[in-house]
Amino acid sequence: MKIRNFYKVLPLFTFISIFGTAMSHAFYLFPNQITRFQSSMLKSAQPFTAKGTVQLSQKKISTVLNWVAPQKYTLSLNQIDASFYDDDGGVSEWLIMRDHKNCQIKIDSQVFQCPLPSFWPMMELSANSEAVGKTLLFYKFLKDIDVPYQEVDVEKMLDTESADRRAKLALGFNGNSPIAVIEIQGPEYQISNDSTLGYPLLHYDQKFLFPTLARTMLEGEVISIKASAPLEVTRDKKKYTHILANKIEISINEELLATISRQNSTPLAKAPVMNFSKSALDINVLKAKLSNDGKSLLRTLLLSH
User: Fold this and answer.
1) What is the pTM of this model?
2) Domains plus CATH for the chain?
């Protein structure tokens, strides 16, 4: 990794070195305390909406995220190019509806069933801490003991010999800016044979415990999701606040797949109506209608929402 203007980053490395040593003699946050924080903040959040875009293959698609309640939201897309369909035809608007375990994609008069949310939407848009933990366990980011809530054991936190130090201070990024992050390595952490990327891996900023990076292996490919957001404490944004990413980059084996951008969220004036079909088609039926770009768009949406 090459870092320009290294002298500007040097104080950060010094801070990591000093603070990392201090942590080893002070106290220690456990993975389940870190991964639960943002979902617990979302429980008290008011419904919101956020406009944005998805950029893929030099094409930009407009989006609107309407978050109604924990694990209940819609994502609408428009200006979908005809080239995203296998026959260069099809409607330009899609609607994704999620209500806990129910998920459907509506395209014109056809409705398709979509899978349970992946690890990223669970971390960012779910307020069910237990479900977040189980999802991260399924994707091998956590151990079994990390899922249930645990009271803080001060003696164990102070015991530097017995502590399971999978969460540690490391160098990460918020967008292109280097920051000190809390890094959680999965119990089966390894380095990819084709690169220097380690996985399963999670990064969280220290102020809001906002996830800035999630990387794991899926179907033989290394999936990296990198997020950025304003991470300054202000009068209107306290430390105990849910953070919605304003930019998400999804990469497959180090190659950028798509970039999701969002404007600042605003209060949701009216909750969208969700009418789930009892005769939704299988997601593979939709995939068969899509071009390679269309399949990449669908994959982007399912990984991020």
Assistant:
1) 0.85
2) 6-304 (2.50.20.10)
